[in-house]
Specification:
7% of the residues lie in helices and 66% in strands. With 187 residues, it is mostly beta strands.
């Protein structure tokens, strides 16, 4: 009896065609990194879930979006002149907000788009920064938790392959850059 239920459910999923209304859910994941003016690069992984509030595949889109970033503990050091900056960092955040997208060719097989968003973000950062200067003694700037509201800007490319929709998106999130790859869910 279970096999009939499993086969029936699989048949329903396999029977969906590209002509049906596309899913409103998109899941994305990819690397995120920061580069500071003194050359330090810290990285992490960004996960995102998007829900289209406007009709999918339209010229102007509006999405409700949630995301999270995780980065492993990382050390850094940089020397410039008589000053040195070193430390370690481990960052996690969650974001919730709205993003809009403008796509000149929303139904094309390859569709570029630009995206903008406003998000509330809560950041948890563990670690410390040590600054050593010839005129000042060493001191420690501990990290903690904070929340903020921020804007994002990005470029993306949507592709339809074999009845599925995929997207590749490069985004600037505060001082970080992310490159995520995602797909619309099949339901």
């Amino acid at each position: 009896m279970r096999w009939f239920l499993v086969l029936g459910f699989a048949f329903l999923l396999a029977g969906s065609s590209a002509a049906q209304t596309p899913s409103r859910w998109t899941l994305s994941a990819g690397p995120e990194w920061s580069g500071w003016w003194w050359g330090t690069h810290l990285w992490g992984v960004r996960l995102r879930a998007e829900y289209d509030l406007a009709k999918p595949n339209s010229v102007v889109g509006l999405r409700l979006e949630g995301g999270a970033r995780w980065g492993p503990t990382q050390s850094y050091f940089h020397q410039f002149g008589s000053r040195s900056v070193s430390g370690f960092d481990q960052t996690t955040d969650i974001m919730l907000g709205f993003s809009g997208a403008i796509s000149p060719f929303p139904r094309a097989r390859l569709s570029p788009y630009i995206t903008m968003g406003v998000f509330g973000r809560q950041v948890w950062r563990g670690g410390a920064t040590f600054v050593r200067d010839s005129t000042f003694p060493s001191y420690n700037l501990p990290h903690s938790s904070h929340g903020d509201i921020m804007a994002t800007l990005g470029l993306g490319l949507r592709a339809r392959l074999g009845g599925r929709s995929f997207q590749l998106e490069l985004r600037r999130i505060h001082y970080n850059n992310s490159l995520t790859f995602g797909t619309r869910l099949p339901f």
